[in-house]
């Protein structure tokens, strides 16, 4: 019984931003009913390999991408292009508190599943639409893709190596950051709307746009530009105002060294046997190091390459110089702190094996999130939901199946 166990969410969304929001709500106990197209389901079910393996080693055809964003949900297959399917969804909406969708602007109105239509059957409904560019503005009809939004929204202009450096140029994030952050903002918006409804009894419409979120999340970079009028430049893994505050390659991998003051710089070069660099007036203070970074950084690079990643981490931690490794994901999940925090979870799966997932990172004393159910197989809960939520009998369900509605 989670904090949201009294809340039902009808999830009409696919791919990542909407499902990420729905999974977050499900982790806190909400009953999330995921509506999928019969036969194919969420696009991400097929975004593989890799796929989940059954105990005999065979692919289950459940793509790892899909598994990442759909635990704790119930899957119901409904063809919303049919009048009968639309009726089923409207009936489910009438029994729900929240509807999530990420269809193109105006598309669900054709099916009578837009906010105004569903509000007629559930006046206090909270309805959240997730699109690339929002419901208004000249781009509203455009399809929104995370990669495009990362570029359009400014993120890639400040991400990547500096111009003139090897590999210099704009770079996207390693995950769909606009999608994920939109899912998180949408979660906050839904919870806020639920709190408002609890006090007033009034539902509302939520308009979430990937571009809005991408712009908003640039945080201090936005403020730097708005205060100065100068767009920030790319610095790769370096810092515009602090030196050395960057990555270095060791003899067997990469580390991060984040020197925050002159004392830490001295300890860093002492650990590398280059104490004379701290006494050099070109490098003795941070402003001097910033001015002379092009001279200093190659000297530090050569120094760091002489020892291994583990040797440097041990030496710098002992000297209290902020540092850390750059781990691949095997190293991440082998990390003692990650293990101690229980970040990997294993849930039973209908294939007969288990599915390895990452737990919700929130820790709370009274209402912690929980992972209790595997990402559902396609249509796994169709009959159960039609019976338990809508009260359909076997004959009604059989009729819908005969018409290929569910």
Automatic annotation (TrEMBL):
Keywords annotated in UniProt: Transferase
Matches recorded under InterPro entries: CoA-transferase_III_domain, CoA-Trfase_fam_III, CoA-Trfase_III_dom3_sf, CoA-Trfase_III_dom_1_sf
Top-rank taxon, per record: Bacteria
Enzyme's top EC category: transferase
The protein, known as: Succinyl-CoA--L-malate CoA-transferase beta subunit
Gene this chain is encoded by: smtB_2
GO molecular function: CoA-transferase activity
Species: Paraburkholderia humisilvae
EC number(s) per entry: 2.8.3.22
Gene3D superfamilies listed in its UniProt record: Crotonobetainyl-coa:carnitine coa-transferase, domain 1 (3.40.50.10540), formyl-coa transferase, domain 3 (3.30.1540.10)
